Amino acid sequence: MRFEEFVAxxxxxxxxxxxxxxxxxxxxxxxxxxxxxxxxxxxxxGSPIQERDLSQARQRLRDAGDITNMPLYLVQxxxxxxxxxxxxxxxxxxxxxxIG
Length: 100
Prior knowledge:
By secondary structure, the protein is α+β, with helices and mostly antiparallel strands. The chain has helices at residues 3-11, 54-63; strands spanning 17-24, 27-34, 37-40, 72-79, 89-96. It has one domain (3-96). The chain is built from two helices and five strands, in the order H-E-E-E-H-E-E. The chain has a five-stranded mixed beta sheet with strand order 3-2-1-4-5, with no helix packed on it. Strand 2 (27-34) and strand 3 (37-40) form a beta hairpin. The two termini are 24 Å apart.
């Protein structure tokens, strides 16, 4: 889903929550939850939106307009290294955050 589509849905109250996913210390992506779906937010070229730091992610959301009533979380993952799940990310924690 393109970011502009997400903003329209969020302003209409259709987005249950937004995750800013920390994939590494310098790589953040957005995942919107709409109904039973989780949707990665995309650039105009169809690639996932990636921010270099959390302040860039917050600024993009501030610039989007009135989406402050939507729950927002910072989500961090840790790589697993056991045999069964080698290389798969594992949720380590989800922390509520604000745009401000």
